[in-house]
Amino acid sequence: MRSDLMVKENKIDEFISAMIEKGRRLAAYARPSDETDILFEAGYFHESNVSLCDQCDRSKCVERPTRDFNGPEIHYGLIASGDSVVKNTTRRSAIIREVGDVLCFEMEAAGMMTEFSCIVIRGISDYADSHKNDHWHYYAAATAAACAKELLSYLDPNNIESPRRSSELQPDHESRASNVFHGTGIQNTGSGDFSVGKNLNIS
């Protein structure tokens, strides 16, 4: 899939458009206006109790070049999973310094990956800063679902084994081996596949 999408565009927009046409309530999953996609300087904090940034200083916005492709892009690499929401640039930077360059922060997958091996697919909806709001959440969820659908189109269902719980693979939960992953892509650890974007230590 990754190789294919180097020479052609993904089908995420196509899948989302087809979904929205199935019912008027699904319009909530449409792409918001680009005017609401605002990245502020790291040191500039949200100035209002209102979730949207109508009262924030637009002179503090980070200017970014126009993208060649206006649809969603699929990124491959590390996702940081934790037990709390990250909406502070100081904390965001600290995590990146400790863990390395990550694509995004999320909360749900950490609990799932202790139970069974999986690939985490997330839609990115904000910049993990104090300006965080829900404006892009529905669209982000739709893009993640569409990306998963595209990934599934590359899999042969006849070659897929039934998933096994991590508890079945590792009876002694406290004596997990320490693994070092080198390189990029899908690396097999013997107890399941992890998708990594760089060298990574897991204990």
Automatic annotation (TrEMBL):
Superkingdom of origin: Eukaryota
Biased composition (Polar residues): 185-203
UniProt-listed Pfam families: PNP_UDP_1 (PF01048)
Every Nucleoside phosphorylase domain range: 59-145
InterPro entries: NLR-like (IPR053137), Nucleoside_phosphorylase_d (IPR000845), Nucleoside_phosphorylase_sf (IPR035994)
Ranges for region Disordered: 162-203
GO molecular function: catalytic activity
GO biological process: nucleoside metabolic process
Compositionally biased tracts (Basic and acidic residues): 162-176
Record's protein name: Nucleoside phosphorylase domain-containing protein
